[in-house]
Amino acid sequence: MAKNKLNLPFTGISSFCRVPICENWSQLDTDVAILGVPFDLGTQVKPGARFGPRGIREASTIYSLQGAGYYDHEFDKNFLEGVRIVDCGDVDMIHMDAQQCLQNTYEDVLELLSKNVLPVIIGGDHSVPIPVTRAMKELGPFHVIQFDAHLDFVDERLGVREGQGNPIRRISEMKHVSGISQIGIRGPGSSSRHDFDDALAYGSTIIGPRQFRQIGAKGVIDMLPKGTRFYVTIDCDVLDPSLAPGTGSPSPGGLDYYEITDVLRGIADRGEVIGFDFCEVAPIYDQTGVTCQVAARIILDFLGAIFDNRKP
Ligand SMILES: [Mn+2]
Q: Quick one: average pLDDT of 105-113?
């Protein structure tokens, strides 16, 4: 093997941003743990999000970090320099047993948190944040910020309570969650008028793209609570389908790259981010690979902003 390797993005094993892989978690010693949840049994329309972790990892290799971080001239900053990021692989999936898949997710996140890491979860459909936020009980109270086209506030249908249409309702029931903000919500979805009433009665702040564009990213950030901890869940379909077509329930009129990343930076400025997920990327509908690329980039940008704020 060559001693001085160039390690170009198309070579090697595609971990997230080509960071080291750790499958034996007893040895885990890192600042950030990447965890894939290749689960799409909670999907109500088009499946395929089980391939999201692989698609995002593959697309992310173009941003190979290799310890040096990355320079972004728009901020004149070198982000993520010295931050230890490890790819911890995927949660084990059991076909025909959705509840066991979610239970495995819960247990894996609990184990990662015991290592004192920032968990970054790559979904999977939008059921995934239910076991993730449940596992974060000891880190409460924290505020949950959802980026999504859909409200995801359905209570239950024919006994289904933890599918992709239910996560924010389930999160609203968690005593360790202090509040919820829902950004990008628009158009038809599985939630009814009644569900919107319930979300508002709970105390949710709901911001659609029209209001977002009236008040701008800064106005949106100003509506979030201050000095609290945040967990952020990003459903890919919050983005406009022209930018991110590779998702099971695309919805016209979504946010663009700068709109979401400017708000994510504002969140990182405003309080401690204790974890986040990016869900609902389905590479089989992603003809050009742009969705996986945008997802990888948003994850990277958000990580950069979070650790920029953790500097002494
Ligand atoms: Mn969703």
A: 98
Residue 130 near residue 162, CB atoms below 8 Å: yes
Nearest Cα to 18, choosing from 28, 6, 26, 29?
6
Q: Model-level pTM?
A: 0.97
Give the Å distance between the CA of 280 and the centre of ligand 1.
7
Å from CA of 312 to ligand 1 middle: 35
The domain ranges of the chain are: 16-310
Say whether pLDDT at 240 is over 70: yes
pLDDT over threshold 70, residue 312: no
Q: How far is the CA of 147 from the centre of ligand 1 (A)?
A: 8
Question: What's the 89 CA to ligand 1 centre distance in angstroms?
Answer: 23
- CATH of 16-310 given 3.40.800.10, 3.90.470.10, 3.40.1180.10, 3.40.50.11750: 3.40.800.10
Ligand 1 midpoint to CA 63 (Å): 26
